[in-house]
Amino acid sequence: RKEVEQDPGPFNVPEGATVAFNCTYSNSASQSFFWYRQDCRKEPKLLMSVYSSGNEDGRFTAQLNRASQYISLLIRDSKLSDSATYLCVVSSGSARQLTFGSGTQLTVLP
Amino acid sequence: GAGVSQTPSNKVTEKGKYVELRCDPISGHTALYWYRQSLGQGPEFLIYFQGTGAADDSGLPNDRFFAVRPEGSVSTLKIQRTERGDSAVYLCASSLSISYPDNEQFFGPGTRLTVL
């Protein structure tokens, strides 16, 4: 079983739609949680960190459920420029490295 | 300012050859990480340096892989006797430190390695 699991998609949605991505992780010692965005043939870039209380950044909302070991990302009012692969990422306290899911591909259609 | 840079951007080699991949981290960043990304997968951790020393090399797949960071800045990932399965994008990242809130990792554009 992979340490971080995501639905690979692809998700094809019209502009303006709301889309949600889910992710589960298996290491209960994980302490830090992130969503990264990766455009085609580009490097991953941090989209947002995820906190237990949930956090919002404009059209993006991230939630963490430690009991269920579940992370989500909600994108409201999708834009064409949101088309990318979204990577769910965890890190444990002792290990500095990031553990990535395989990514969920999103295409926003005009 | 300048981000993480990696050279070469593309490398094509033959099975059995030796390759070196270079990473220039963001100036002043003490931590440097190497990851490998295969098609359709997320990046997988290989090794990370804190300063000059390899703090964790648990992700290196076997002893054909080795990395150095002799002066605590530039790092080189070395792969001996390359195999076709080594073909991937090799990503380097750096962070100001390993402690929150300065531990955000910034990635370079990667080196696309193809082993024929």
The helix content of chain B, as a percent range, equals: under 10%
Largest sheet of chain A: 6 strands, mixed
Low-confidence stretches of chain A: none
Spans of chain B of 5+ residues with little confidence (pLDDT < 50)? none
Q: What is the residue-averaged pLDDT of chain A?
A: 93
Task: Look at the helices and sheets of chain B and give the structural class.
Answer: mainly beta
Note the overall shape of chain B: globular
Counting helices, strands and paired strands, the structural category of chain A is mainly beta
- Written as H for each helix and E for each strand, in order along the chain, the element string of chain A is EEEEEEEEEEE
Label the overall shape of chain A. globular
Q: Whole-Å distance between the termini of chain A?
A: 37 Å
How would you describe the oligomerization state of the chains in this entry? heterodimer
Distance between the termini of chain B: 37 Å
Q: Let me know the number of strands of chain B.
A: 11
| Count of DSSP-assigned helices of chain A | 0
State Rg of chain B: 13 Å
Give Rg of chain A in angstroms: 13 Å
**Approximately how much helix is present in the residues of chain A?**
under 10%
| Beta-strand share of residues of chain A | over 45%
Largest interface: A-B, 19 and 24 residues
Reported for the largest beta sheet of chain B, the result is: 7 strands, mixed
Task: Describe what this molecule looks like in 3D.
The complex is a heterodimer of chains A (110) and B (116). Chain A has 110 residues and is mainly beta. Chain A is built from no helices and eleven strands. Chain B is mostly beta strands. In chain B, the strands form two sheets. In chain B, strands 2, 4, 5, 6, 9, 10 and 11 form a seven-stranded mixed β-sheet that branches. In chain B, strands 1-3-8-7 form a four-stranded antiparallel β-sheet, with no helix packed on it. Chain B is globular. The relative contact order of chain B is 0.33.
